[in-house]
Amino acid sequence: MRLGAPPSSSVLRPAVPKAAGDDDDPAHDAVSRARRGDLDAFRTLVEMFQDRVMRVMVSVLHCDRAMAEDLTQEVFLRVHKGLPSFDGELRFVAWLHTIATNVAISEYRRRKAQKRDRRELSIDQPLAGTDDLYLTPAGREVDPREQAHQHEFLVRVRACVRELPDEFRAAVVLRDMEQLSYEEIAAALALPIGTVRSRIHRGRLLLQDMLREFQE
Questions:
Q1: Lowest mean pLDDT among 11-25, 61-75, 107-121
Q2: Cα gap 173→4, rounded to integer Å
Q3: Residue 144 sits in a domain of what CATH number?
């Protein structure tokens, strides 16, 4: 199994790392209709992605479900407002994550203002080493006797992700839980790809250390 980042002080803006064809974006048809004012199509988009946005909010901010629901509603209000300007150069899901990240960042800053003594970490120095680390119980085979242990492992992984420093959590969640590409994460977080890789790498190392008991 493979598996945030307080952003810079500047306002994030969606970037365009690569073009996305219709075949790459399962939301393409619904997006096209929603841009023309089709409310049913927009509801389809909400149904397709609301759980995903909520999952990001809970993982990145470590917030409760009620807060995640409020923030998710704010995300889709912004999506609805911004659809006319969405040009399709980026996959819809990546554009959505950019908006979700901005909303999460606003909430993060609100919390940070209340905790001025929060510890700050230096994380932008690139790291040498393998990009993709896999957090899998060593030598584990799936069989009926192991299912309970596997479930325990997955629960522990999610808990450890929530415990990651804010600087690493968003990048790890977007890469290893939401399966965005490095380019899409760089766009969502308004960071150089090298910094994104460094944050993911460091976050994964921390997770590996937290999950050491499952790798023995």
A1: 11-25
A2: 8
A3: 1.10.1740.10
